[in-house]
Design goal:
The protein is mainly alpha-helical and 247 residues long. It contains ten helices and three strands. Strands 2-1-3 form a three-stranded antiparallel sheet.
């Protein structure tokens, strides 16, 4: 499959079976594991589209306290993520660019920096929040077997995610993705890039993205990014991650 064709196939399914990006964002607001009742992705007006609003967290700011403190969660969501939403809207308007869904946007050959950074920031964080749940959720037996086939074991996947996150120079994300062949693999992106972007070193369907920007952990962990990554493994909702599998 050509790279461009693969990206197009993500337009309706990259975030879960049959799930469009607008359904995904809607799901983030109250139903992190499903898009039931969500609107279908149509041409969304820039000024009013649900793709351009901050999704509510599916838990309270203090719900992940054992791993991520409430102050970090509140600032991260209400300031940083809201900031990406605001800047994304402004960048689209200033560029006079129409916007219908993230996948098509990120599949473009290039994007103005404002749209790339703020659109990526909005999308990435919208994927991140529902991937976490207090206490974590174990993978299903079938998904655990699939992970073992791909990475050796669940523990080996977690170790690889931790090491991948530690390897990011500066700000960025570590990802579990499905590549064009449906194979799960790990990758990293700098800043607010993601694996849907046409220039990413590894294009793929993002199953899980973990934020390794300092704003995600510095209040509690200071410079110990590795400790943050080790602890966040205990609050991953592997059911949500599995729901994003495509094939
Ligand atoms: Fe962040």
């Amino acid at each position: 499959m050509k790279k461009r064709d693969f990206i197009k196939t993500l337009a309706t399914s990259s975030l879960g079976a049959g799930m469009t990006s607008s359904m995904f964002i809607s799901a983030c607001t109250s139903k992190p594991t499903g898009g039931e009742g969500a609107e279908k992705s149509e041409a969304v007006p820039v000024s009013t589209g649900q793709l351009l609003t901050l999704p509510d967290l599916p838990y309270g700011y203090n719900a992940l306290e054992a791993v991520i403190d409430a102050t970090t969660m509140e600032i991260h969501h209400s300031k940083h993520h809201q900031g990406y939403v605001n800047k994304f809207k402004a960048a689209l308007e200033s560029e006079g660019k129409t916007f219908t869904d993230f996948e098509s946007l990120f599949a473009e050959a290039s994007l103005p920096d404002g749209i790339r950074n703020s659109g990526g920031g909005h999308f990435n964080h919208s994927l991140f929040w529902p991937s976490l749940v207090p206490g974590g959720k174990a993978p299903s037996t079938g998904f655990a077997e699939r992970i073992s086939q791909a990475f050796g074991s669940m523990d080996e996947l977690k170790t690889a995610l931790i090491n991948g996150g530690k390897s990011v120079f500066g700000s960025g994300w570590v990802w579990l993705i499905q590549d064009g062949e449906g194979t799960m693999k790990l990758t990293t992106t700098p800043n607010q890039d993601n694996p849907l972007m046409s220039w990413a070193k590894d294009i793929g369907n993002p199953l899980l993205g973990i934020d390794v920007w300092e704003h995600a952990y510095y209040l509690k962990y200071q410079n110990q990014r590795g400790s943050y990554l080790e602890n966040i493994m205990s609050i991953i909702d592997w059911g949500v991650v599995e729901s994003r599998l495509k094939g």
